[in-house]
């Protein structure tokens, strides 16, 4: 059993069946069937079912049940399977041996990685969060930030080199207006300081001046020209705005508990001196052409409603550059300079067409080779109770910090009601972890490309597939160990399987590594949330039906080890999601 585990690098016994079934198929049907997918699925009749025999028998011109019987006989699952049976027209049902499950779970309990495999390492650039300088982060930034961060954490744990890229909006015509307002009020003024706490206030003040005063507007346009020309005074003022915004961003990131830092800032300004070269190269190579005064690329396969080719504008008719030009520069840089062989864009679903056209253009230009994978991780919309885009009552986008503050307040109210036995200091300490964790977990538990209704009352509940429920499951296990007078990490007794609830819990734990690998492969954090919820539910059933501390010595030690393994999986999984697991709940 240990040999199988080491060879495959997995602990999930279902995963261990796959190579054995593939080898049996080749043995029975010959080399022409080498590498065939055995189609492994859970079954209501057994732990796993092999379903390939029907299709393979048809190709081989043989009776399906006969082929299934021969494959079953050839399966090398000694020590793993308690029984192998053929059912129906040719299904192979495999039931795992309890001792094998116990042995694998004991190995998992002692594995610092909790069964998470190390994959062949890739260099992965991941673009996420991307707020704008001198603008408030709003609820739409929540999803790009927490989904991107969960993917970055997961991919790093799987052994990849992850390069975070926070593509902030820090360049463009709006900065002329902002710089001119900064000159008016003074860089050290109280109004300028609001960029660190309430960026919208400063932005709206500048916008109002731009609208109401033509002279101000003319000066602002001049500031844009100065900034783009690299004028030192204009750049110094721009840097002041950037620095104040950086303080604001970091306050949000600290509150959210995400891994983005200053070293990951890679804004639009980073690529400003490359844009002319991008356009020149595209034009010289005949990839971009003039159209109505603008320089455009017409990548094949993109047409409008009228059937006419859609343009990707890389230089506007006034000589300025837009998002397309910057995005082309970023993808070229991420491949050529960072060495990325997988590039992820955690960006709103509304940008799908734009990004696909950028990717197609980059492929045409050779900046995005065929062996580099590029993925738009589409982010769906957060909705209010009216199933429309979540906004304030005044119709403005909901400020992210206000939402997070409210989540902590709501979490504290629930904790005060549910756990009045906890002292005041403990309740105050865990409320931020519970509130922020509730918001993040609720977002991550939904497929990233789906919309969801933001319901704070539901998110902070201690029941259902919520962050607090998962946090409470971990805290309850820690409580068991406090009552036992020992640390979970010190629990090393072998695990035995005697009861159905023990078996079910162990099987859920053994799936953890394969689930994490699938999250990294398919970029789907919601799968991890769903699995952790299954683990927590299985532990609850085990806890109710299998006494731990009151059991006899050997059984007690085994069940403590199973509880420790459960805590290990839950806390590891929550950490991959970026959710805290408080000691007490």
Structure description:
The model is unreliable at 1-8 (pLDDT under 50). The protein is built from 22 helices and 13 strands. The chain is of the alpha/beta class. The protein has a 4-stranded antiparallel beta sheet. Strand 7 (288-291) and strand 8 (294-297) form a beta hairpin. Helix 13 packs across helix 14.
Mean pLDDT value: 93
Helix content: 40-55%
Strand content: 5-15%
- What's the gyration radius in Å? 28 Å
The coarse overall form would be flat
How many individual helices? 22
Structural class: alpha/beta
List descriptors.
585 residues, alpha/beta, 4-stranded antiparallel beta sheet, 4-stranded parallel beta sheet, 22 helices, flat, disordered N terminus
Describe, in short, the structure shown:
This protein has 585 residues and is of the alpha/beta class.
Itemize the secondary structure elements and their pairings.
Elements: H1 2-8, H2 13-29, E1 40-41, E2 48-50, H3 53-60, H4 64-74, E3 81-87, E4 91-96, H5 98-109, E5 123-127, H6 139-157, E6 161-165, H7 174-185, H8 190-193, H9 199-212, H10 214-228, H11 232-256, H12 275-284, E7 288-291, E8 294-297, E9 312-315, H13 323-336, E10 342-348, H14 352-365, E11 373-379, E12 382-383, H15 400-418, H16 424-444, E13 452-453, H17 456-459, H18 467-484, H19 500-510, H20 512-522, H21 525-545, H22 553-577
Parallel strand pairs: 5-6, 5-10, 10-11, 12-13
Antiparallel strand pairs: 1-2, 2-4, 3-4, 7-8, 8-9
Helix pairs in contact: 2-4, 3-4, 5-19, 5-22, 7-9, 7-10, 7-11, 9-10, 13-14, 15-16, 18-21, 18-22, 19-21, 19-22, 20-21, 21-22
């Amino acid at each position: 059993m240990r040999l199988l585990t080491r060879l495959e690098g997995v602990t999930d016994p279902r995963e261990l069946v796959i190579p054995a079934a593939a080898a049996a198929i080749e043995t029975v049907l010959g080399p022409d069937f080498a590498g065939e997918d055995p189609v492994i699925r859970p079954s209501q009749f057994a732990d796993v079912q092999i379903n390939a025999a029907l299709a393979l028998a048809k190709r081989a011109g043989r009776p399906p049940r006969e082929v299934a019987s021969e494959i079953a006989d050839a399966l090398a699952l000694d020590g793993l399977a308690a029984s192998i049976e053929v059912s129906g027209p040719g299904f192979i049902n495999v039931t795992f041996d309890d001792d094998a499950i116990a042995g694998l779970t004991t190995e998992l309990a002692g594995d610092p990685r909790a069964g998470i495999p190390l994959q062949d390492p890739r260099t992965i650039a991941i673009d996420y969060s991307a707020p704008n300088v001198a603008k408030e982060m709003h609820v739409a930034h929540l999803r790009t930030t927490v989904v991107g961060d969960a993917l970055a954490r997961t991919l790093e744990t799987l052994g990849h080199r992850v390069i975070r890229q926070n593509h902030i909006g820090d360049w463009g015509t709006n900065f002329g207006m902002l710089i001119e307002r900064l000159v008016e009020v003074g860089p050290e003024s109280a109004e300028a300081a609001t960029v660190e706490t309430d960026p919208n206030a400063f932005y709206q003040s500048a916008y109002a001046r731009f609208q109401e005063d033509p002279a101000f507007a003319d000066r602002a346009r001049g500031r844009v020209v100065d900034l783009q020309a690299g004028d030192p005074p204009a750049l110094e003022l721009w840097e002041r705005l950037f620095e104040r915004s950086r303080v604001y961003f970091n306050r949000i990131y600290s509150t959210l508990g995400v891994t983005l830092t200053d070293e990951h800032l890679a804004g639009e300004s980073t690529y400003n001196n490359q844009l002319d070269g991008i356009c020149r190269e595209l034009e010289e190579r005949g990839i971009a052409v003039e159209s109505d005064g603008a320089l455009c690329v017409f990548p094949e396969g993109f047409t409008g409603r009228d059937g006419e080719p859609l343009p990707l504008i890389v230089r506007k008719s006034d000589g300025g550059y837009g998002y397309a030009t910057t995005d082309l520069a970023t993808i070229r840089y991420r491949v050529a300079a960072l060495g990325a062989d997988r590039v992820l864009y955690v960006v709103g679903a509304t940008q799908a067409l734009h990004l696909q056209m950028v990717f197609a253009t980059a492929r045409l230009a050779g900046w995005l080779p065929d062996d580099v994978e590029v993925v738009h991780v589409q982010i769906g919309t957060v909705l209010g109770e009216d199933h429309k885009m979540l906004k304030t009552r005044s119709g403005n986008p909901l400020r992210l910090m206000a939402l997070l503050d409210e989540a902590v307040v709501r979490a504290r109210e629930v904790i005060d009601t549910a756990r009045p036995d906890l002292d005041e200091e403990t309740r105050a300490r865990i409320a931020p972890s519970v509130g922020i964790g509730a918001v993040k977990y609720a977002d991550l538990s939904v497929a990233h490309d789906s919309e969801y209704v933001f319901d704070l009352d539901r998110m902070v509940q201690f029941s259902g597939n919520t962050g607090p429920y998962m946090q409470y499951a971990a805290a309850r296990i820690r409580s068991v160990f406090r009552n036992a007078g020992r640390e979970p990490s010190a629990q090393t007794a072998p695990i035995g399987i005697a009861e159905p609830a023990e078996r079910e819990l162990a099987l859920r734990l053994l799936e953890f590594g394969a689930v994490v690998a699938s999250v990294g492969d398919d970029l789907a954090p919601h799968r991890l949330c769903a699995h952790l919820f299954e683990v927590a539910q299985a532990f609850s059933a085990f806890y109710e039906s299998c006494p731990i501390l009151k059991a006899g010595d050997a059984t007690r030690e085994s069940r403590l080890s199973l509880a420790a393994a459960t805590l290990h999986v839950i806390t590891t999984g929550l950490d991959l999601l970026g959710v805290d697991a408080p000691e007490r709940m």
